[in-house]
Design goal:
43% strand; mainly beta; 2 helices; eight-stranded antiparallel sheet
Length: 514
Amino acid sequence: MTVLHCRKKVDHNWCVHWDSAYSVDALCPEDGGYCFRAPSPEGPFSIKKICPDILHIQRQPLPLRHRKRWIQTFQSWCEDGFMHPGILISDDDGETWRRKTLPYPPLHEIAWPHKGFRWRQPGCEPVVAEAPNGRLIMLLRTSQDQHYWMFSEDGGETWSSPEPSPFYSVATMPNLQTLSDGRMLAVWNNTTPLPERDHRLDPGLMDSEINGTSEDVFTNRDALHAAVSEDGGRTWIGFREIHLNERRNDGDFRSSGGTFDSLDKSIHQNEILELPENKVIVAFGQHARCRKFVIFDLDFLYDTARSDDFTRGLDAWSLHLYYRSIPGNYRGIVGHCSYNRRQGAALIPHPDGIPREVLQIGRHPDSRLLSEKEGAVWNFPASARGELALKLRLEHGSAGMRISLTDRWFNPSDPVVEHFAPFVFELDAAGRINTIPALQVGEWVDLRICWDQIAGQAWCLAGEKEILRIPSRAVQVNHLCYLHMQSIAETADPFGVLLESVSMHALKGPEGSV
């Protein structure tokens, strides 16, 4: 049994053995990296210093299957002032270790739609998995739109250059694991944050938060996803939400629960453990108000359909808006780079007097908000070809809404989502969709939206009548897996668009595949 630990004098960590606890200060008197080895989990442990430097180690050591070797990932600050990924390699069962520091992905630069820097952390929190053919895949947290990955064909001796992976996310921890049957499981936040503000205009930010060496605010850490690969990481199935932060709508998001154990109320950092009978348990989050254990069956990732009629409330929906909170990290304000929130789109009584509720998406002025535009975001099984069925009603006096299909989660109030969505349908106040007459104001309509990413087109039907067909307008890395609806009102819209139900199912292609 091998356990690695890095000791730093300011830490108050403990190395826990099954029935006793050992003070790290006593066992590791000097700064550096240490290896704890034992013939079995019961011990006894031998302790050896293997590295003089502080390496940020956050993953369990990985025993390779195709050779007698241990791999341990780490991150460390280098002379260039940035965090680099790296690995420790042991070929003698943890007795000695070799260190390799690796290059990091490109740094975030200010370009549209951003007016300021993201946290410019280029290669943090690396995780390595061994594919069934022995190839090593390293996944990296970055400040780009996607996690980057690197590959090694020789057990970690040499690595390819970092390149964008299929996994979208910004400044969150990815996870990757090979399961006992050879499939690979990825757990990550398939999310994109709001565009960066001009941080020079935010009062009180530190220089590090302005120039991108630390973060001002996180707006993409409230949805956790999973996908599975059957071909060694070449293609991925699922892209399903396995949890939405239950605190995502809280008006006291920053301060709720205090800071005894953590400032971070996100659900991004995770660990995976495979269970029997096709199950997986995932632990995620840091703060006591948000951290969870979730067990799910891997068959969930193979679903090809999903539906919702709000009889179970809004558990499956992202609807939150952000209050103008003080950004930044500590600064005497409780919370870790967080905005307070409130729910935007809401359930209201059915206008036809039926004893059920419908979702209203409009605009209700509130000067305290960063944006008043309400939106609703819903995940479905990723599919290259599919059909969405929406029963909706455009109310008299409503300005309408925009319907976007995307391959990742965007904030409900995101101001630029339509520029990244391949298919966008805009319903205006007169009932036209993309300027084509489509429905009657004040009447329910069964609207169907079908897409075929292989053919690069989508089409919209009202009932059985096709209204329009549009080409793809943006390149997508993955299959579509999100419905994003947002009010297009520029001023108050208390009437909005009503949604009674939504369903999705995958469509078979010409060759019969889903």
